[in-house]
Amino acid sequence: MGNGSADEQGSIPRTQVSPKTLRRLEHASGGLANSSIGAMEQRLPWFRRLPADQRASVLLVTQTGVSNFVSWLQDPTEAIRLTAEAFRSAPKDLSQWVSLRQTVEMVRAAIDVFEQQLPDLAEDESERTLLTEAILRYTREIAFAAATSYAAAAESRGAWDARLEALVVDGIVRGDTEESLLSRAAALGWEPSSEATVLVGNAPSDDPPSIVYQVRSRAARAGRSVLLGVQGSRLVVVFGEPSDRRAGRESATSITEAFGEGPVVVGPTVSSLTEAHRSASDAMSALRAVVAWPAAPRPVPAEDLLPERALAGDPEAERQLIEKIMLPLVDAGSALMETVDTYLEVGGVLESCARQLYVHPNTVRYRLRRVSEITGRTLTNPRDALILRTALAVGRLAKSRGLW
């Protein structure tokens, strides 16, 4: 039985490189980094097109990675900290001009250089094997660090986008018409010329990420672009025109399902985001007044709540009742006004209305159709009848005060 050492007999493999090899690696680190950059320039056409300052930033990351590899060989437990430092040394906008896929391509090119040059720095075959295994483990950590760095950047951009989106929605609610609002919305992917409609209601939960996911997933299925903001317990959603008009009409209701319990009000559709405040203002006013209509559908158009809004003291609702209903009927002639008044007074009984007016029932039917064509409201519908009655009352009160 021989008395040689375990290392001489080869029964126990070496686990650390010699100090001499570590010094060689330290001296060669600059050359390894430059060789890695050279390999990237040779193999990656997109890398050659990068500006000089961006290539220099990649070189800095590579040099840090090589330097940390030497430190890691001395203490592998420091892998996570050292590999993370390689990416912390990079400019904050690195992920904006180099994608994760391109980063993987650069790491692969650097690995090839390491595998070719590092073994030559080893003392013996045992160290060559050790360095080869170390390269594989370290580059794996580098890959994970890259993925973590890009994920953190994505989360940061997502948080910034959410704050920017909240500012845009808040500006719409307040009535900001500054150019900055449009530029912010454009930065979020909103088409400036797109139509806009505002939905307001209760937020479904106290978890903003969950709310965002629910709204966006339904909007995506509906083919609509959206901006949303949670203001306390209230959820405000601005959605754009659908890619398919017919599908868009059917899908507006699906977005409502992302709201919490309680009424949801939809404002009028406006031609662009610059006019979205009008839709938001009507929707907010209607949300305050909807309590007076317990049987309101969900969602309920803000214009269907004009009577309740007028009773609550909303001057905009009074204006719309006068301009959209009262004045068109006045312009159409006294016969239509008289028919509306009489039809409402007799409780919607057509024959009784005809007798009161001393006309044929068909004449009443014709006049009712004309009223519907002019105002968009049908007297035979109880809700429309209430809106027409309120419009006439508001209009006459305004006229008595000389407002029109």
UniProtKB/TrEMBL annotation:
The CdaR GGDEF-like domain, residue ranges: 175-289
InterPro entries per record: CdaR-like_regulators (IPR051448), CdaR_GGDEF (IPR041522), PucR_C-HTH_dom (IPR025736), PucR_C-HTH_sf (IPR042070)
One Pfam family recorded for the sequence: HTH_30
One Gene Ontology term of the molecular function aspect: DNA binding
Extent of Polar residues compositional bias: 1-19
UniProt region (Disordered), positions on chain: 1-20
Keyword check for Cell cycle: no
PANTHER family: CARBOHYDRATE DIACID REGULATOR (PTHR33744), PUCR FAMILY TRANSCRIPTIONAL REGULATOR (PTHR33744:SF7)
Family: Belongs to the CdaR family.
Protein's name according to its UniProt entry: DNA-binding PucR family transcriptional regulator
